[in-house]
Amino acid sequence: METESGSAPSTIFGPQLRRLTVAMLVLITLSAFEALAVTTAMPTISSDLHGLRLYALAFAAPLATGVLAMVVIGNWSDRRGPRLPLLVTVVLFTVGVLISGLAGSMTVFVLGRVVQGVGTAMVVPMYVVVARVYPEGLHPKIFAAFAAAWVVPSLVGPLAAGLVTEHLGWRWVFLGVAALVLPAVALLIPGLRDARLAVGSPEVAWVPQRIVAGVVVGAAVLILHTVTGDAVDWPPMIMVAAALAAVLAVVIAIRQLAPERTLRFGRGLPAVVGYRGLIGAAWIASEVYLPLMLKQRFGLSPSAAGLVLTAGAVAWSLASWVQGRIGSRRSDVLVVRLGTALIGVGAGMALLTGALGLPPLVAIVSWGLAGSGMGLMYPRLSVLLLRFSTPSQQGFNSSAGQIAEFTGMALSLAGTAALFALLINSGVIAYLAPFAFALIIVAAGVLISGRVLPSSTVAEPPESVAEPVG
């Protein structure tokens, strides 16, 4: 892929791509920081705004609107190119954090979170930008950089948010992010002047059924997080029925939001999209409950228990860098299978640590192996997704990958929450169940990992590979 000067970029930080690369990495980092920091600040926010009853909704609302936004933004990017969709989502993200930071009531704060959820769909047009502007040989490096951009916030985000909340006030957790978006946009705009980013495929029509399906998935995710987060006081049977109905709605609606045969992990693109949901489910099932087990079972302080997350984040970052250096020198299937197996090692050692009373350091170090698995695998799946996407389907397929990951994590959290609640009076078993749940998912992933490549790998995928249902 050549620039207007006739020479193809050789590095993601070269003169042709430097501003665009830095701008996108800064935006991903800010989005990640905000997502992590709000968890730290939320107890203070709900107290100051007298909105404890809306506590769970403040987390669930942006997740729900994010799904719908990914659907619309993906369709828009295919029709008109990624330039305008990316700018609009960045603006909406900024508006959302400003509304939340200036909120005088919990209702207004939640409204800001709703707008933020729409803005987080910025990652969809970013994928299309990569497909249009970055040579294919640089795709492993830029996706490795995207993965690494989440790591710094995971290391310092909660601590920084706590210090800001304590010394400056919780509002600056949001207002500070909004202020830092401005220099990123200043770098982004020149990079978006590339004519290829304004070229779409007008023959790609708006698909109303996908938008309706996005609404259904978003509403179902909202219901799942509500009934599993103690936000309502319904009878148990009604809560179970609501959760099952929400899961069924997701399964039905997702068929409109992903390539055909995704739920069956059809070879090639469908399996790549489905695998994003699978590994997201396995990862979140363990990561959420590891600090809880270390604190409750072994009596570690919150900061000491948090070391397990740091280990995973650092290993993820290092493995992403290694993956970017490896490029295509290792088989796609080998990398995906190895990454999945390493997540299994992390979950399995966490289970053994809790069951056998092993030193907590065993679980912490082992979760570093799980993080390295994600760092190796995640960028490779992103590369495969674009490789198997025709230009007219880059936006749709990018949004499908994000939606699959998001819904996989949401379903996994609902499942582990139900297991934990069911076994809460069974002692240590309740803390081990999520890891067993993750291991089942990992085992399935290892078995089907070979399906991420078509039966006969070709340079250009046939148009039918990327066709959505309906």
Automatic annotation (TrEMBL):
It is a multi-pass membrane protein. Keywords: Membrane, Transmembrane, Transmembrane helix. Its main location: membrane. It is found in: Cell membrane. GO terms for molecular function: transmembrane transporter activity. Residues 20-457 form the Major facilitator superfamily (MFS) profile domain. Gene3D superfamilies: MFS general substrate transporter like domains. The chain crosses the membrane at residues 20-42, 54-74, 86-104, 110-130, 142-164, 170-190, 211-228, 234-254, 275-294, 300-322, 334-358, 364-386, 406-424, 430-448. The keyword Membrane applies. InterPro entries: MFS, MFS_dom, MFS_trans_sf. GO terms for cellular component: plasma membrane. This is Predicted arabinose efflux permease, MFS family. It comes from Microlunatus soli.
